[in-house]
């Protein structure tokens, strides 16, 4: 379901520009950035024009009011109400959202042939595309897992943005998603791609949540899904995904830092009409802890950021694989 760290408005006054670093090869610390843009938070700032400049006293008053609002806000209560409205917890809320309003929104964002997106959505599209490209680069650089003939589980396949290029490279792909609408769209996109790629192997598509996935695969990939689940659930999902993988596990997540956490909390004061799922940031420590508990270790790391998208990307291997 590849949903990444997403914001819906610039916070140009709160950023640390990062120089652009080309990605021609993978090292143990892969970093991918667009050109000097501010990092912003995943989840829920309104799509509005930049605010006019304020005098120092006015800015101080506005900051004080914002701090008070943040301290008094209760996003957890709102999130609980969202989940209860669909009869369950995070999983049910995610399923309902991406089978309804969320599906159409994210279908447009992920489809490069669609111009019906605003500048924020276009930026998110570019960020997600970078995550897919970085994942493909990681897998192509793995000498022990040639993509042609490899078995790959794309857990949370969304509209097929990763499954389709993997299938075009000759991989045998299981593409699954919690959303039936997403899986249907991925099937449609794959059928279109099959006619233009001689080596294309049609993926097997299934509507499944992560916990119900079964089988064994050379590679398991889960991009931009963990943002929808809290720490304990995310760690459980990672352990389950690791149990399905033989050689590689690639996951992405929105990193939890003080900076991103503050921006996320501010964003939660402005829940847009299409922001219908919870958004969770995860610390690298928690993700690595879950991998270690499953007998895996991080081999490569990546960090993808655009103005409205950010994600950590981990490539993990079994501990038994040693230092290879």
Task: Describe the protein's architecture and organization.
This protein is α/β, with parallel strands linked by helices and 324 residues long. It is built from ten helices and nine strands. Strands 1, 2, 3, 4, 5, 6, 7, 8 and 9 form a nine-stranded mixed sheet that branches. Strand 4, helix 7 (180-194) and strand 5 (204-207) form a beta-alpha-beta unit. It is globular.
Tell me the number of helical segments per DSSP (H or I, 4 or more residues long): 10
Radius of gyration: 20 Å
N-to-C SSE series?
EEHHHHHEHEHEEHEHHEE
- How many beta strands in the DSSP annotation? 9
The amount of helix comes to 25-40%
Distance between the termini: 31 Å
Helix/sheet category? alpha/beta
Share in β-strands:
15-25%
- Poorly predicted runs are 4-52, 66-75
